[in-house]
Amino acid sequence: MAEVLVVTSGKGGVGKTTSTAALGAALAQTGQSVCVVDFDVGLRNLDLVMGAERRVVYDLINVVQGDANLNQALIRDKRIDSLSLLPASQTRDKDALTAEGVERVIGELKNRFDWIICDSPAGIERGAYFAMRHADLAVIVTNPEVSSVRDSDRIIGLLDSKTEKAERGEVMEKLLLLTRYSPERAERGDMLKVEDVLEILSISLLGIIPESPEVLKASNLGSPVTLANPISAPSRAYLDAARRLRGETVPMTVPTERKGFLGNLFGRRAA
Amino acid sequence: MSPAALQIVPKSDADPAAAQEPAKRKPVRFKGRSFMALVLTPEQPVNDWLAELDALAARSPGFFGDRPVVLDVSLLRLSPRMIAALLGDLDQRGVRIIGVEGCDPKFLDGPNARLAMPVGGRAAGEISAPEASTGKVGGSLIINQPVRSGQSVSFQGDVTICGSVASGAEVIASGSIHVYGALRGRAIAGSAGDRKARIFCRRLDAELLAIDGVYMTTEDLNRALRGKPATAWLDGEALRVAALD
């Protein structure tokens, strides 16, 4: 049975798209068939992060409105066969999404993939609403700072009231993905600690992604970080998170960069 | 208005120097101001509709309160006399009608003639009437999950929350509020005018505390109480907060 997962946050710039790409690729790396869907109509980014921007012909809106079928719009990743992208339209806006259209597209995707990962736009409006609407579980991407935490709390409230699952009276599973975390800065009190965030949001933890220049480097290369550099600290954190999504029990750690002699010499060159 | 009414008449004991200057006319100033009026649209049979209105008022005392109400009689085909009777019925219920629309203005006679509404106005969406499911008045509501940012819990009676109230969330109760978790949002107790209502929480970090309209923000709060189990009550006209231990 396919799982529909929404990656959401309320606040912008916390790492939803990066996390969608990284988790999608990480799940695909474990052999699952995965489709990542960009719901940020008008401000699409997932295609860039996935390195597929030159291959977009049809998009989500074309499929929602019945102008193209899924086969025409889906873009299969060149690095991993089991990973596909359904891009958003850049020229339209969120009003082009319709309830029936989105429901039909998600229904069709569920017949083809093990995982459908919906990359939600920031905000709590139409795009975010449709991205979460049909989800079975939600990954809440949060930075360890107060505004991100409060926005995440707001989104959790909406997940518990506006989704199909909530309307059926079921409980939506919500998992926290804490991104851009720096243990040193949290220890100094410059940043909220993991426990603080968990205490405020009271949901379970999917993973802690350490702050790392590798993430930006991978985005600019057009590759999910788990593919660009699988042994980097953020990649290992994402790969662990993906294993937890599959039901494995993986001890919760904050991976750090393994720097040898050469790492020290060249470590600063990137970024 | 006659110009004389607008003239400034210097008082006899005013500064003589000022009095000698020709009195300047003060310009008449106009200001725009918009109010949200509740539009009531009665349906046939009117008696059943009035009964439903009574039930709503019983569920939520003070729902009409001082709200301005516009009566839209377009769904009814009433004679001038029936309109007058309906206005009387509503007046008895304490509903303040500021205007009537949906009928020929000539139908409004006598003292009701001034109620004819000018055409216009802009629809402002549904105003949700309190649901019957909020339980009996003066009862108790128990919430077994955190109140999230942006959510608002409103209840006639006491509210108990087994969880936290997030920053940006609000709990409004006509009775007392109990929070078995951190109170980071707003807690408004005694909202319908109960001076004895209190607020209790396991961890005080509230954005705003209010009892019977007397409020306090975190800024006014004694820092030593932050993060502590605490209670708030009304002492005369002052809101008091003390640690609970």
TrEMBL record, chain A:
Q: What keywords is this UniProt entry annotated with?
A: ATP-binding, Cell cycle, Cell division, Nucleotide-binding, Septation
What is the protein named? Septum site-determining protein MinD
Q: Which NCBIfam families match?
A: minD_bact
Q: How does it assemble?
A: Interacts with MinC and FtsZ.
Q: Which organism is it from?
A: Chelatococcus sambhunathii
> In which family does this protein belong, per the annotation?
Belongs to the ParA family. MinD subfamily.
Q: What would be the name of the gene that encodes this protein?
A: minD
PANTHER family, alphabetized: SEPTUM SITE-DETERMINING PROTEIN MIND HOMOLOG, CHLOROPLASTIC (PTHR43384:SF6), SEPTUM SITE-DETERMINING PROTEIN MIND HOMOLOG, CHLOROPLASTIC-RELATED (PTHR43384)
Listed SUPFAM superfamilies: P-loop containing nucleoside triphosphate hydrolases
What's this protein's function?
A: ATPase required for the correct placement of the division site. Cell division inhibitors MinC and MinD act in concert to form an inhibitor capable of blocking formation of the polar Z ring septums. Rapidly oscillates between the poles of the cell to destabilize FtsZ filaments that have formed before they mature into polar Z rings.
InterPro entries reported for this sequence: CobQ/CobB/MinD/ParA_Nub-bd_dom, MinD, MinD_FleN, P-loop_NTPase, ParA/MinD_ATPase
Query: What sequence ranges are listed for the domain CobQ/CobB/MinD/ParA nucleotide binding?
Result: 5-225
Q: Which Pfam families match?
A: CbiA
From TrEMBL, chain B:
Where the record annotates domain Septum formation inhibitor MinC N-terminal, the positions are 28-95
Instruction: Write out the coiled-coil annotation as residue ranges.
Output: none
Which intervals hold domain Septum formation inhibitor MinC C-terminal? 142-241
A Pfam family it matches: MinC_C
What keywords appear on the UniProt entry? Cell cycle, Cell division, Septation
What InterPro entries has UniProt attached to this entry? CAP/MinC_C (IPR016098), MinC (IPR013033), MinC_C_sf (IPR036145), MinC_N (IPR007874), Septum_form_inhib_MinC_C (IPR005526)
Q: What does the sequence similarity comment in the record state about its family?
A: Belongs to the MinC family.
- What subunit structure does UniProt give? Interacts with MinD and FtsZ.
Q: What is this protein called?
A: Probable septum site-determining protein MinC
Organism, scientific name: Chelatococcus sambhunathii
